[in-house]
Amino acid sequence: MTRYIRIPAAPESELARPARVRMRDGVLLAADVYLPEDGGERAGDTILIRLPYDKSGAYTYIPLIAEYLMARGYRVVAQDVRGKFRSEGEALLFVNEVRDGEDTLDWIVQQPWSNGRIAMWGDSYYGYTQWAAAASGHPALKAIAPRVTGTRLGEPVRRTPGQRISDVEWAITYLYPVSHFHGNDTFMWEPDWARRDFASQVEEFLAEVGERSISYDQWYPRPVHLPRFPLGSPFASRSVPVLHTIGWWDNCAPLSWADVADIAQHPAWAAHHHLRIESVDHEGYELLSDPADRVVERTDEQVRALLPRTLDPALEFFEVYLRGHGAPSDIPAVRWNLAGTNEERTDAAWPPEGIRTVTLQATAAGGLSTDAAEQPTELTWTHDPADLVPSSAADAFSFLLEVPDEAPIGERDDVRVFTSAPVASDVDLAGPVTATVAVRSDGPVLDLFLRLLDVAPDGTALRIARGQRQVAEATTPATIDVGLGQIGYRLRAGHRLRLHVSSSDYPEFIPQPGTGVDPWAWGPTATNQQHLTVGGPDGLTIHLPVLDGELS
Fold this sequence. Notes:
Layout: E1 5-7, E2 17-22, E3 28-34, E4 44-51, H1 62-70, E5 75-80, H2 97-109, E6 114-123, H3 125-135, E7 141-147, E8 165-166, H4 172-175, E9 186-188, H5 198-209, H6 214-217, E10 242-247, H7 253-264, H8 267-270, E11 273-278, H9 300-321, E12 334-337, E13 344-347, E14 356-362, E15 367-369, E16 377-383, H10 399-402, E17 416-420, E18 427-441, E19 445-455, E20 461-472, E21 478-491, E22 496-502, E23 528-534, E24 541-548
Parallel strand pairs: 4-5, 4-6, 6-7, 7-10, 10-11, 11-12, 15-17
Antiparallel strand pairs: 1-9, 2-3, 3-5, 8-20, 12-13, 14-15, 14-24, 16-23, 17-22, 18-21, 18-23, 18-24, 19-20, 19-22
Helix pairs in contact: 1-9, 2-3
């Protein structure tokens, strides 16, 4: 029996006026309308929030957010997306959000309390719904403020025939459709991670709840990739000013940075694209926060205390682009926190000017150095599907709730460890981190995980960057570049850099059985010998963007 918790819609807020918004196909979507007590009946600016996590529920604090926004004169519309909680229709991930967003914008501009100017705000999936609404080209949408999200959010890894190098699949890709998008309610459950037959466990869950998930069935076992943007890429449509917030420790940050790269290729979007980078994870926990704020369930008072940090940057942005007060130049193109400090910096572009790339080479003895000169050597470890390298955080979305010490993972025999000398003075890193890796395996598929760590003098280690790639036909050697994402971090004097190399990160990523069978279905397993080259022209190197200070 699968153990799960079914979470239905919470009671609607007493502050809200419930409404039903008709879509073009007749489906009614549930919305809560919040109007300021002082002049709310008059036409004014509106902030729209479209989400799948219950517009009235405790998880998203929408009534408290609406209260904060109303106090600043905004009308707020919070809407359950199609098929979720009080909204009608099928709970089908991603594909309805462009048209439903457009129809909701149409509805808002027809209301007597709307002046026809609308902005959108929200995290994760309700950041994605902003990109979707923007893709519709609706003229009433004047600004968006997506946080910790991406246009490719939740998209399964696609591999074309003959493609050797790809990403490793997240486990959440297939679990999300049978938890948050299974039906109107949310179903909180996890597989038995001691088992590896993930597909069978999903079928057991579906049999127990008595209905299938259309979102899961579209992706597994025979994927049907329905277009999430039927009118084309958001960046090919009418441009909208964007306050784009990314978290240094957000596990979805690679999706955000992919959008940043896409926007740079579209001048109309780039002209009013404002980037904000914070030292937060996906759930909004901060690196240097008060430990009292690192709790799973916050009181209303704690939430209210955090709202200025979360909402004020967007309100500053909306003041310019929605209300027309001030000039776009008043909002920095890039505002970012140098992680490990309380410094907030501004720059004209990302990465900032003045960085230089410093390359550290790995040695057979486990060192990282700028001047290593060694002959090529292969280091070997065993990938054992029955004994996988653990993910460092219990919940990858809340990495900074735990701030886990990564050092113990490096004590495993199946993790190769490379460590630099201590730095003599502070070193500021800002920009993209990449690695060049030459690998092979005696198995058919090799998953490769790299974790860059800050090692303190007491031996504890904080992950500051990471990357992963999958190599097919792995018995043939492959030299690949691995992106470890962007970084903005101060490495303190006396600290060292460390690189962990492994071939599993479980359960965050679906592991390899070692035989080439479908990892989600599992099946026969085998141990694999993994080989990594250090030294020589193809040896393991990591390329770091140094803004200030010296690495050796």
